[in-house]
Amino acid sequence: MKLDLKKLLISNLKAIFNRENVEVVVTAVILALIIRAFVVQAFKIPTGSMKPTLTEGDRILVNKFIYRFKEPKRGDVIVFKYPEDPKKDFIKRLIATGGETVMIKDGNIWVDSILIEEPQKLRQIFYYNKPEAKYGAEEMRIAVPEDSYFVLGDNSASSRDSRYWGFVPKKYLIGKAFVIYWPPNRIRLLRDR
Known about the structure:
alpha+beta
């Protein structure tokens, strides 16, 4: 009788311990899924279209809830569903928002006929015209539809962006990139200014 009680006690402790571990793991998985779905998501940069800001292999974190409280602004590095294939995610710099008219002239960005001076980052990048692209001709005035965005890659000589496929619908916006967390030598906050 004494031996059976000991075995029973040990088996009950094992069951409780295993159940507690399972509960902890399940809770952690649920929290991770909630955080990924609504708060922060990690992405890996696959191409050089955002060089020098982001390079191939950089791993970034994207704030997915910020645009629930404020509108995206010119210069933000945003992640969105690719308009030509919404199953793919893209990352580019926001240049103009719905209702604005954008133009690329002599490597500079003009919005509503005003040369963009701020954020400073936009003045540091030479934006190429792409005559073969639908929205890429020199001095072409492009009206951005309401609830849409016009985006460009920082490496505009080698970027497929709004010049080719047009506008990003607001509903495709995923979030704002805010930090490079890997590789260690590239860890930094992404600044718009």
